[in-house]
Design goal:
By secondary structure, this protein is α+β, with helices and mostly antiparallel strands. Helices cover about 20% and strands about 30% of the residues. The longest helix has 19 residues. Pfam families: DUF4442 (PF14539).
């Protein structure tokens, strides 16, 4: 089922395959990417938050998505800390993972509704300093890879290199993550 209007049900409960622009699970982004030359990044951010319900348990929010990066925030909450009083590594990984996926959504906005899969194949982490307080994760996609994929029109399977850098409130790097995504996209 394909539609060019806004989703009739909330994005978190809309059946896979609904929405403009494609028939796969990412077609839900269709209304936000209907004009590939002017994607609605605020709507992409809203949909991305809605389709990952697990993030609500931790209170993590995707706060910004654009073609160059994404921003995800972990609130400063005592229930997100470990026995040492620092932000738990699981919360840091979740924020980095969401920042990476949101960065892909922003970088690939023109073809996002055609995505059929976006799966992490490999993840690397480097914890640099104890994370305290509110944490921001900045996600970025390799620009050359993004340009190559955006230039295509046919279906393909490809790998994307994505990074996430996590900062505390003093803009000190607390962790770095690298993700290798394997993606599949349908033709335009």
């Amino acid at each position: 089922m394909t539609s060019t209007s806004a989703p009739a049900t909330p994005p978190a409960t809309q059946p896979a395959g609904a929405g403009a622009g494609g028939s796969g699970p990412f077609s839900i982004f269709g209304p936000a990417t209907a004009d590939p030359s002017a994607p609605d990044f605020a709507r992409i951010c809203e949909i991305a938050n809605a389709i990952v319900p697990f993030r609500r348990f931790v209170g993590i929010d995707i706060t910004q998505v654009d073609p160059d990066h994404s921003v995800v925030e972990i609130p400063a909450r005592p229930d997100l800390t470990n026995q040492l009083g620092t932000v738990h590594a699981g919360a840091l990984f979740l924020a980095a993972d969401l920042a990476g996926a949101a960065a892909v959504a922003g970088a690939m906005a023109a073809r996002l509704s055609r995505f059929e899969s976006l799966v992490v194949r490999n993840a690397r982490s480097s914890f640099r300093r104890p994370a305290r307080g509110r944490i921001r994760a900045i996600g970025m996609v390799d620009e050359r890879e993004a340009r190559r994929v955006l230039a295509g029109t046919g279906p393909e399977r490809f790998d994307l290199d994505v990074r996430a850098v996590l900062y505390d409130d003093d803009d000190v790097i607390v962790a770095r993550f690298g993700f290798d995504y394997v993606c599949a996209i349908g033709g335009d």
